[in-house]
């Protein structure tokens, strides 16, 4: 309760990014106050809270261009949402990643390509989410696994074979869910059971017999669930009772 009260008191204060109390009298935009185009603790470019800064630019979007060099990164980041597109390329080299994210969200793809090697993962995540799918090959070897996950979800299917050996199992699992069936074989023998399961789920029933002894019970259960019933005999003695029950149920349904 004490912490909640402390936070609430902090929000109820009007302090700038340096921690000093906001003073409307010394603000360069003080004339806006009489025009109801700004309000202390609600819509203020000098406030340290992004929501209040955002409301200020919502009320005064014409001031965004002139604020892109403001010393406080939150002001630059929020101003990027309202500034003219022609002004945003300069922000791609901003020292703060939040500002670069904000610019990346609005800029055309030709500028996004300049951020594919950005030092901050959040910027690269946003770039991978917006970049044209055909250009994602440039981010296929990104150092961050989550960036590569986004790439695996969006890249054209014929390029997924280049990600079969990705070091992160979550990336390979996505690859297994999308890749052309002709390239599934390496993934059905993957070291990670979740990847094998995703690959086996996409195999036709006639090819499942090769996986009835997989080390993971989930893979074997999928085999028992979909394999041709005349091949299920050995699975009645599986080490996992759920696999046995599935095989028995399938055989009963088939009248065998």
CATH class of the largest domain: Mainly Alpha
Report the β-strand fraction as a percent range.
under 5%
Uncertain parts: 1-10
Overall 3D geometry? elongated
Helix count equals 12
CATH architecture of the largest domain: Alpha Horseshoe
Query: Which radius of gyration do the C-alpha atoms yield?
Result: 28 Å
How does the helix and strand content classify structurally?
A: mainly alpha
The chain-level mean pLDDT equals 92
What is the number of independent domains?
3
Largest sheet: none
Helix share bin: 40-55%
Query: At the third CATH level, what is the topology name of the largest domain?
Result: Leucine-rich Repeat Variant
The H-and-E topology, N to C, reads as: HHHHHHHHHHHH
How many β-strands, per DSSP? 0
Distance between the termini: 66 Å
- Could you give me the name of the CATH homologous superfamily of the largest domain? Leucine-rich Repeat Variant
Structure write-up:
- It is elongated and about 90 Å long.
- The protein folds into three domains: 11-107, Leucine-rich Repeat Variant; 108-179, no CATH class; 203-256, no CATH class.
- The longest helix is centred in the last third of the chain and has 13 residues, at 241-253.
- By secondary structure, the protein is an all-alpha fold.
- α3 runs parallel beside α4 and α11 (217-226) runs parallel beside α12 (241-253).
- Helices cover 42% and strands 0% of the residues.
């Amino acid at each position: 309760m004490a912490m909640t009260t402390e936070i609430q008191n902090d929000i109820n204060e009007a302090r700038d990014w340096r921690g000093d109390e906001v003073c409307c009298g010394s603000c360069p935009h003080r004339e806006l106050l009489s025009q109801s185009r700004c309000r202390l603790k609600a819509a203020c470019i000098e406030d340290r809270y992004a929501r209040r800064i955002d409301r200020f630019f919502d009320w005064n979007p014409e001031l965004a261009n002139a604020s892109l060099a403001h010393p406080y990164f939150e002001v630059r980041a929020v101003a990027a949402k309202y500034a003219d597109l022609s002004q945003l390329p300069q922000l791609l080299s901003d020292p703060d990643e939040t500002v670069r994210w904000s610019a990346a969200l609005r800029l055309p793809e030709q500028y996004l390509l300049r951020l594919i090697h950005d030092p901050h993962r959040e910027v690269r995540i946003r770039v991978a989410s917006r970049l044209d799918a055909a250009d994602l090959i440039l981010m296929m070897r990104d150092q961050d696994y989550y960036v590569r996950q986004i790439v695996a979800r969006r890249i054209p299917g014929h390029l997924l074979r280049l990600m079969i050996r990705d070091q992160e199992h979550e990336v390979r699992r996505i690859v297994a869910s999308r890749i052309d069936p002709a390239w599934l074989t390496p993934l059905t023998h993957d070291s990670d059971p979740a990847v094998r399961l995703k690959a086996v789920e996409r195999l036709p029933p006639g090819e499942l017999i090769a996986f009835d002894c997989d080390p993971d019970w989930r893979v074997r259960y999928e085999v028992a669930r979909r394999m041709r019933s005349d091949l299920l005999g050995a699975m009645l003695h599986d080490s996992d009772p759920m696999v046995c029950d599935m095989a028995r149920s399938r055989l009963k349904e088939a009248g065998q």
